[in-house]
Design a protein that fits this description.
The structure is a single chain. The chain has 13 helices and 20 strands. By secondary structure, the chain is an alpha/beta fold. It has three domains: 152 residues, Roll (Ubiquitin-like (UB roll)), CATH 3.10.20.600; 176 residues, Rossmann fold (3-Layer(aba) Sandwich); 75 residues, no CATH class. The strands form five sheets. The chain has a six-stranded mixed β-sheet, covered by helices on one side. Strands 13-14-10-9-15 form a five-stranded parallel β-sheet, sandwiched between helices. Helix 5 links the parallel strand 13 and strand 14. Helix 3 packs across helix 4 and helix 10 packs across helix 13. Bound molecules: iron/sulfur cluster (2 copies). One iron/sulfur cluster (SF4) binds next to helix 9. One iron/sulfur cluster binds next to helix 9.
Length: 452
């Protein structure tokens, strides 16, 4: 079982970023000196591409200011000194229609772990969703949220139905990983809605639609071998459904909405207990005394999370959020856990390879490995010079942040870091920016006719 511990000590202060998603930042609903309670909404934005933020603790607002965020930038945040207090989740879970449910998802601040607000995945403007997938392939069931594997499976099935309702979709599937035997056994043979669930393996041309038809059911549970990076959703979509997502498009362009286990669980909680999205599971590894998965309150500074894991082993050298290859190295351990924080990796000072970046030799290895046919070397150079508009013209927003370019670079250029930096800066400057039409670049041409 993959145990998840619960962080018992409430942090002395939490830092709640007013932007924890792709899209418009929230405006604060509180001011310095206000007392807030756990679950209270403290930031909102009327724009569709936003999600509300809530206080994860009770306490006093001591400041609202720009502070470092795990994405490497500074983000306007509400800083709360914790004190005794009660919960006051003010969500109204009485859900009647699918649009009510989508509104509740936005109001509860539910965001996918890669940053997209979940209501936008389920109800993308101008698109029709007919299939909802819960992607449970990137992690085993997060035991800390559930008492038993069967509780997990039942909640996920209920959550899938809610997601389908929010999307107005008639079909849905939970996708497990073949080697996650605990999850498979939790679902296999389960009685749900008067039917016995059988976990079906995706083999060859037998995709989800085959099993939906074969089992004469609206929902199925399937399993597959692959694990995909958090933004490689187009390949996931193809492998599970057989539907091709063209470059520059997203799964919703082919009628597929993909949600993660965390957002599915958050929706279940919002509907069943009126609880907004205020806590998340973070995997802490590397040079810490007790590496573990830990359930923490959103806004908890990294240093408190590491303390809860027994503290550093020796002198810390580098702290990386969200993966050692594709993640972002942090300047400080004062940055807060946000809705998109999935992991914290600590390297000791001795482990950090301090090879200096040298000049680009134009070897084009990064170009060869880029799965979306970008020219990472050129984009990184433009980002380094602050020429973000030219990065846009080079289709930077199509980057899926797989990290391959940085991994193969013999000159140790921080290609991915530079790309991420430019992407965040562009998003900040053009809040409603979407992938650029690629009419002048056949490689990136979008052929699906949907989306942008
Ligand atoms: S991280 Fe690098 S290799 Fe991967 S998609 Fe982005 S530019 Fe291409
Ligand atoms: S792999 Fe590195 S050195 Fe080679 S072209 Fe790309 S950025 Fe330049």
């Amino acid at each position: 079982m993959t145990n998840v511990n619960i962080m018992k000590d409430i942090p002395e202060k939490v830092i709640i970023p007013l932007k924890q998603h792709d899209g418009m930042a929230c405006e604060p609903l509180v001011k310095k000196g206000d007392m807030v309670c756990e679950g209270q909404k403290i930031g909102e934005c009327g724009a569709y591409n936003s999600a509300s933020v809530h206080s994860s603790v009770s306490g006093e607002v001591i400041s609202i200011e720009e502070v470092p965020h795990p994405n490497g930038n500074k983000v306007n945040s509400v800083i709360i000194q914790t004190s005794e207090g009660s919960e006051c989740a003010d969500l109204k879970p009485e859900v009647v229609s699918s649009s009510d449910l989508a509104d509740l998802i936005k109001e509860a601040g539910i965001v996918e772990h890669y940053g997209c607000p979940t209501h936008m995945v389920l109800r993308p403007e101008g698109k029709k969703i007919d299939l909802v997938l819960i992607n449970a392939t990137s992690s085993e069931w997060i035991g800390g949220h559930y008492d038993t594997p069967s509780q997990y499976s039942l909640q996920m099935l209920d959550a899938l139905k809610l997601l389908m309702k929010a999307a107005g979709a008639s079909k849905g599937a939970i996708v497990l990983r073949n080697d996650d035997l605990e999850s498979i056994s939790a679902f296999d043979g389960l009685n749900y809605d008067g039917k016995s669930i059988t976990v079906a393996p995706l083999i060859g041309k037998r995709k989800v639609s085959y099993y939906l038809k074969d089992m004469a059911s609206d929902i199925v549970v399937v399993s597959q071998d692959h694990i995909y990076g958090k933004k490689i959703l187009d390949l996931f979509t193809y492998n599970v459904t057989g539907r091709k997502v063209s470059f520059g498009c997203v799964p919703t362009d082919v009628g597929v909405a993909i949600c993660g286990v965390k957002s599915a669980k958050a929706l279940y909680d919002a509907v069943n207990s009126g609880k907004p999205y205020i806590e998340t599971v973070v995997s802490v590894s590397g040079k810490v005394k007790n590496p573990q998965k830990i359930l923490v309150k959103i806004g908890t500074p990294f240093k408190d999370v590491i303390e809860a894991c027994g503290g550093y082993i020796g002198e810390p050298g580098k702290l990386i959020a969200n993966g050692s290859i594709t993640g972002v190295a942090q300047y400080t351990d004062e940055v807060p856990v946000s809705k998109t924080t999935t992991s914290i990796f600590v390297q000791s000072a001795g482990e950090v390879v301090r090879g200096e970046s040298i000049y680009c030799t134009h070897c084009a290895r990064c170009v060869d490995v880029c799965p979306v046919n970008l020219v990472p070397s050129r984009i990184a150079a433009l980002s380094d010079q602050g020429r973000f508009d030219e990065c846009r013209q080079m289709h930077i927003m199509n980057c899926v942040e797989c990290g391959r370019c940085a991994a193969v670079c013999p000159s140790k250029i921080h290609v991915l870091q530079l790309i991420k930096y430019a992407k965040v800066s562009i998003e900040k400057a053009y809040e409603d920016f979407a992938p650029k039409d690629s009419s002048t670049n056949l490689k990136l041409g979008c052929g699906c006719g949907g989306g942008e």
